[in-house]
Each structure stands twice: as structure tokens, then as C-alpha cells.
Amino acid sequence: MKKEFEEEYVEVNGIAHFLLHYPKAPDAPVLLYLHGGPGSMESLFAYELDKAWGDMFTQVHWDQRGAGKTLLRNKKLGMPETIEQMLDDLHGIIAYLQRKYQIEKLVLLGHSWGSVLGSLYALRHPENVLSYIGTGQVISMMKNERTAFQEVWKMAEKAGNRKHLLALANLEDYPPDDPELLLKKLPKLRKIQAAYDNGPGSGSGQGELLKLLRRSPSFRWNDLIGLIRVMKVNHPLHLQLLSFALTDYPSHYQTPVHYILGETDTIAPTSLGKAYFDTIDAPRKTITVIPGAGHNPMYERPDEFATALRAVRETL
Known about the structure:
This protein is α/β, with parallel strands linked by helices.
């Protein structure tokens, strides 16, 4: 029986990077999925996306520097430090995929932190990008946190959840200006946000997350070690990311741009994504907002996300 996926390690910028491929027909466009975090690999959930997306794309997942199987393979080597370093890694990964699949351009899909990498790469290297797709699109980290705090407060009020309202009140003036203090408070906010989100493991406890992971054909028990080490390893990158704002860069894209957003995303608020999208100048641009979906619309509303993705596929 033919294996439906391929795993490999590729040497880029001095370390071995893990790639997971779901190959389709030779004429299917290649889509490189850029996971969130930094450090939150999503390759272990790729089997769910492959079921929903079918034969639209040859799907490739990359465990970035400091994430997942790449983190485990390199031990103390190759820890992530800057956004520029990650963009350089991405450039090397894309060059490898161009050789492997004999293509000039590929589709980039950036999720959350991955949307930072994807947006910046699309702006810098349109010659390599067939189309950019942003989901859980990050616009400005500080604006994200400020708006997210306000929106999740409204959700807690609507739900009448006094426990969440008290926890939010205890965060006081959020987000604080001190980056280190913000990184200490941020997990507390994320824990509350997870109750209103439906991504892998969100609000469902560690037991449910482990079930999702164990069903993955690429899961190994030592993958859990990578999950535990994520925050410590990626701390310098998280600090730098707090000062990131996509609005600091020109919004003129030379490649098509498509946003697929969750209506109730509290982590990367859709209101900010829509406002920035209106400023984008691109050869083609579309935006789809999926009702009832949060920060992980591809997992929360797989059918609706696949429909939006299929519309993008038809424009290529």
C-alpha cells in the first residue's frame, strides 16, 4: 500500500529541518503551511487538513527552527533568535521545495505567527510566491493584545462567566508596556481565550489534545518533549515579536493575497485583519470571514475553510 505522506529532514542554514509532505498529482500546486507560535508546530495535525482539503494541493508542513521535530533533532543547536533568521530559513526551505518539485512558485499559507513570516516573505520575494493566504492573520502584536483583551472580556460578559471576568480584571492594565511582564501575563489571557476557541486542544484539556496527537500518523512519543520546551526555547523570538506591526511595511503586494479569517478570533482579532486588508494593493485580493470560527478556522470549520481554499485554488 502506497504511503500517503513523506517525512524527511533537510539541511538549511546549518541545521536539519523536518518536512512532512502530502503529495498529490504532479499538476497540483505546492502549498507550504507556516505554523503558529513561535514554536507551535502543526505538522502533527496535518492529517486532519489532508482529509478536508483532498487533492487541491500538495501540502507541505515545516517544523520551524525551535519547533517540533526540528527542535528535537537539533538539541541545543539552532535555537531561534530573530524574525530575520526565520525568514532566512524560510527562503532556504522554499529553494529546496522548488528543486524537489521542479516549480518556480508555490502557495504560502501562514497561520498566526506563520502569517508574520508569510506576509513578510510575500512582500520581499513575490518571484517565489504563487499566492499568499493568511489565517489567524497577525497585524500588530500590541494592537492584537489590546483588542483581544477587550473582545474576550465582552465574550465572558455575554457568557456570564464570573470566573473569567475576575481573571481578566486581575490582569489589570493589559497589555503592559514591559515586554517581559507581558509575556508573563499573556499565557493567562490565552487560557481564557481557549475557552472560546475550538482549535486543536483548545478548551478541551490535555486528554483531548493527546488523542488528536496520537491519531497522527507522524506522531512519536518524544514529540511531547518538544511541546514542553517550546516557550523557553522561543523566548527571544517572542520578545521581538511583541514589537512587530505589519503596518510598518508597505502594503503593496506583487502577488495575490487571500485572507481566510474566523469571525470570533480573539487572538488575532478579525477587526484588525479586515482593516489592514482594506489597505492592501495586490494583483488580486479576497477575504473570507467564516462565521462561528475563531483563531483556528481550518480545524474548527474544516468544510467552510476548504470551500474558501478551493475558491483560491481556482484563481491560480
